């Protein structure tokens, strides 16, 4: 390499060096890594990669996205728990996934070992049936289920997701009894509905759009329907049935270890402001709009997200302690 | 529909399209020969950059990497008994013995031709009939998938050979190893010994690398006396490699022409299992191998370097690649890890994957399929040009192989998940492979047990839940009844085979 080439090679680095001091502190100077709890593809991965370059712009250093699937999200979570105390390794995971992860598995961490940087996206729940299903409303579905206890089959991705919890809540509120079958993944659960293996599915507003041909939405498991154009303008289930139901949703968020936040508050703040800046980035928002995913974005500030997660933790802890579905597995 | 199929072809036959196919194929060749470095890893590395490409360009790259790796994984399997990909594990069974007989170049030529022919036929079938095939893929529910797994388990019986007890022990050990995971319903750990890495079952690639490549290298290193004899077998003259290669293309094509039924049958097996999500390339290739061995008049030569075995596994291997495109493009269910990354690329481009993909993005889908077809076709000329460098390993004195290949195996095992745990696992499987070899246990039933155990368990448990414990539920669809019929037929053949020698013995 000639001297001129060497000088030219330093230009991008110098540009970054000048850009970095605009931040509140000098950190980060090295790339950071966001570990994703699932394989490439799917919701978690997209939620991590979509804001990637906008977060990089805000941080002034590259942010690698690395997938560490396995252990029902526990592999990546353990990795960040063990290596993230200097804030250079952060975690993309979900609620309730991280909560179920330590409450139902033998892992070394618990929710308090982490603290959110921000909540990024939200996936509200709904009930879908086949187009030619006999039920035109949730009332008809529940009446039928009451007449035939345990005969109506519902599919969910996993026993440890919010859709399964949604069905349990629905059963508790109405006295109906469903035969709930987990299919090992959301796509499989939705396709089971398409082929008529199950009577209905509890799934996500956005995730289940890929089966909208051949199926219809019977009700939204949320207090209001903010997504009428992609959910057949379905009425909230609580409104149809006249019962109290909580808002059913899963959310994807970015977390650091609690030790990172306590020992390096300035680094934690740098991460929080980078994700906040990315969220306001016009180009990012335009990209999401093009993807038709703007409605999925639910940016929640760290403290609010943490408070909501703690409330969710208490609910799930009680369910795990009392429901036979979880105690049966012990 | 015809117009859009032609438009898809024209999309690929542009300068940019052809360049992408060639780049993808070369990249696929490269990652395929590296043990453990799967095509899904290469596609995943491309993922962040794919946002800057048009969606069909990104998919062309990924699909052609997939096709290239599907063939080139056979090269190290043949040359040094280290399958470059999980799909090539079955190829090693015949390919490596051929290398030891000095027929490495012919084995690679057979693999190349079978990959190209199997891949092209299967891709054309997908292009022609993707819509009806998607309905077939969707119709396989829990009971049908359980029946498929049972058929696979029965095929272990076909592979039993002369030592049924050892094969059964190996098969059950495979299933036991596969049960080291969280259970498929409640995600509770079983036999994980506290290792979080075992929650998702034993990762397959480190197991394959350990059982094949590491075992072979360790065995080689421990056989000093025979090294000089083997060195002769490894030597391939460096001169006139291209000319010899061209001759091998001709002879391998003639070989396949003499075996139209075997080639077509293997393609159909690979393709049919490829369109079923979750079955996987390893099972498809082993089943294709088992069927070839069962039906071949030269069945007794299997295991000693029989080219028919390579035709069976490699035609199936690339046919699986085409088959996996059916659930990927029509159902949004990735048929393989590489297909999952392709779906991620589509997703990042705002394409909603799922059953409506073929309706909304028909042109993109056919463009990808034609790229896959072209990649399979180009395996012959590009593979031929690269045959020289690839086969150069055959000129190595085997004495130098273990110190080169063992680190390569360990790096390959590490690179799948960047996990040191997987490296230890590879070493454990290498030890198991050595024990198997020492005491004469067959390794194929072990692998089939590892693949089929989880498939059978997950679908059996799910079917029991769906049918609320009623066994009649397993016979509740026409498709399931048909599959049970096939299973019964297979069982009958196995029982008859076991009884026939005894019957003959009585008469004598």
List keywords for this structure.
heterodimer; A: 330 residues; alpha/beta; D-Maltodextrin-Binding Protein, domain 2; ten-stranded mixed beta sheet; 10 strands; globular; disordered N terminus; B: 508 residues; mainly alpha; two-stranded antiparallel ribbon; 23 helices
Describe this structure in words.
The complex is a heterodimer of chains A (330) and B (508). Chain A is of the alpha/beta class. Chain A contains 14 helices and ten strands. Chain A has helices spanning 3-19, 42-49, 52-59, 74-83, 97-104, 138-147, 162-174, 186-194, 237-241, 258-263, 265-280, 282-291, 302-322, 324-327; strands spanning 32-36, 63-67, 89-95, 114-130, 153-156, 179-182, 200-204, 215-221, 249-257, 297-301. In chain A, strands 1, 2, 3, 4, 5, 6, 7, 8, 9 and 10 form a ten-stranded mixed sheet that branches. In chain A, α3 (52-59) crosses α11 (265-280) and α5 (97-104) crosses α13. Mean pLDDT of chain A is 86; it is low at 1-24. Chain B has a domain at 2-137 and 225-416. Helices cover 75% and strands 1% of the residues of chain B. Chain B has a two-stranded antiparallel ribbon with strand order 1-2. In chain B, α4 (55-72) packs parallel to α19 and α7 crosses α13 (260-274). The longest helix of chain B is centred in the N-terminal third of the chain and has 36 residues, at 104-139. The chains are: A alpha/beta (330), B mainly alpha (508). Chains A and B meet through α2, β2, α4, β6 and α8 of A and α3, α17 and α22 of B.
């Amino acid at each position: 390499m000639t001297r001129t080439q060497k000088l030219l090679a330093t230009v991008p680095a110098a540009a970054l060096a000048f850009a970095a001091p605009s931040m509140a502190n000098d950190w980060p100077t090295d790339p950071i890594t966001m570990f994703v709890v699932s394989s490439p593809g799917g919701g978690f991965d997209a939620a991590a990669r979509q804001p990637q370059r906008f977060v990089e712009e805000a941080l002034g250093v590259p942010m690698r996205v690395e997938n560490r699937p396995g252990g029902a999200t526990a592999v990546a979570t353990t990795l960040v728990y063990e290596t993230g105390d200097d804030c250079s390794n952060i975690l993309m995971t979900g609620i309730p996934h991280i909560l179920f992860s330590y409450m139902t598995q033998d892992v070394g961490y618990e929710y308090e070992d982490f603290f959110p940087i921000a909540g990024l996206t939200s996936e509200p729940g709904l009930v879908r049936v086949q187009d030619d299903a006999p039920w035109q409303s949730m009332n008809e579905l529940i009446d039928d289920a009451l007449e035939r206890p345990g005969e109506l089959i519902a599919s969910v991705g996993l026993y440890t997701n919010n859709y399964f919890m949604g069905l349990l809540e629905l059963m508790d509120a109405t006295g109906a009894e469903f035969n709930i079958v987990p299919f090992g993944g959301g796509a499989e659960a939705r396709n089971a509905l398409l082929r008529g293996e199950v009577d209905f599915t509890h799934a996500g507003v956005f995730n289940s759009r890929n089966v909208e041909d051949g199926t219809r939405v019977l009700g939204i498991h949320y207090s209001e329907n903010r997504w009428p154009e992609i959910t057949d303008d379905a009425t909230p289930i609580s409104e149809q049935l006249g019962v109290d139901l909580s808002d059913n949703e899963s959310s994807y968020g970015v977390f650091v270890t609690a030790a990172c936040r306590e020992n390096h508050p300035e680094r934690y703040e740098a991460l929080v402001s980078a994700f906040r800046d990315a969220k306001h980035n016009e180009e990012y928002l335009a990209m999401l709009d093009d993807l038709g995913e703007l409605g999925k974005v639910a940016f929640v500030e760290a403290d609010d997200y943490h408070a909501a997660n703690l409330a969710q933790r208490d609910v799930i802890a009680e369910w795990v302690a009392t429901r036979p579905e979880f105690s049966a597995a012990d | 529909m015809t117009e859009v199929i032609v438009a898809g072809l024209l999309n690929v036959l542009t300068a940019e399209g052809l360049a992408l196919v060639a780049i993808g194929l070369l990249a696929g060749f490269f990652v395929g020969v590296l043990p453990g470095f799967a095509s899904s890893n290469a596609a995943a590395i491309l993922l962040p950059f794919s946002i800057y490409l048009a969606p069909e360009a990104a998919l062309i790259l990924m699909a052609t990497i997939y096709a290239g790796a599907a063939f080139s994984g056979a090269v190290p399997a043949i040359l040094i008994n280290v399958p470059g990909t999980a799909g090539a594990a079955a190829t090693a069974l015949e390919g490596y013995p051929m290398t030891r007989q000095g027929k490495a170049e012919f084995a690679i030529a057979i693999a190349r031709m079978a990959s190209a022919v199997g891949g092209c036929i299967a891709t054309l079938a997908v292009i022609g009939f993707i819509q009806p095939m998607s309905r077939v893929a969707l119709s396989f529910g829990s009971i049908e998938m359980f029946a498929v797994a049972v058929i696979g388990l029965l095929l272990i019986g076909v592979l039993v050979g002369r030592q049924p007890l050892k094969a059964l022990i190996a098969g059950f050990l495979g299933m036991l190893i596969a049960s080291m995971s969280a259970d498929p319903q409640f995600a509770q750990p079983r036999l994980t010994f506290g290792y979080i890495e075992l929650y998702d079952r034993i990762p397959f690639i480190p197991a394959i690398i350990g059982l094949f490549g590491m075992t072979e290298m360790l065995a080689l290193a421990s056989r000093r006396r025979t090294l000089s004899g083997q060195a002769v077998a490894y030597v391939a003259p460096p001169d006139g490699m291209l000319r010899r290669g061209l001759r091998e293309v001709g002879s391998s094509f003639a070989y396949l022409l003499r075996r139209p039924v075997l080639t077509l049958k293997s393609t159909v097996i690979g393709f049919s299992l490829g369109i079923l999500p979750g079955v996987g390339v390893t099972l498809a290739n082993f089943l294709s191998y088992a069927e070839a061995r069962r039906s071949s008049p030269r069945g007794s030569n299997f295991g000693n370097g029989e080219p028919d075995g390579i035709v069976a596994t490699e035609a199936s291997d690339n046919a699986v690649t085409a088959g996996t495109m059916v659930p990927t493009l029509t159902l949004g269910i990735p048929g393989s890890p590489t297909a999952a990354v392709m779906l991620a690329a589509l997703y990042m481009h705002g394409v909603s994957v799922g059953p409506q993909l073929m309706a909304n993005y028909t042109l993109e889908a056919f463009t990808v399929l034609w790229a896959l077809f072209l990649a399979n076709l180009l395996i012959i000329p590009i593979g031929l040009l690269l045959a020289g460098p690839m086969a150069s390993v055959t000129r190595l004195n085997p004495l130098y192989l273990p110190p080169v290949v063992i680190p390569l195996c360990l790096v390959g095992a590490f690179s799948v998940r960047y996990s040191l745990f997987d490296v230890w696992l590879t070493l454990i499987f290498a030890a198991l492979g050595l024990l198997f070899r020492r005491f004469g246990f067959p390794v194929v039933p072990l692998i089939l047990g590892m693949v089929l155990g989880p498939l059978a368990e997950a679908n059996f448990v799910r079917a029991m839940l769906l049918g609320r414990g009623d066994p009649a539920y397993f016979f509740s669809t026409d498709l399931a009844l048909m599959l049970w019929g096939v299973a019964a037929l297979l069982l009958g053949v196995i029982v008859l085979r076991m009884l026939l020698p005894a019957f003959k013995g009585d008469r004598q």
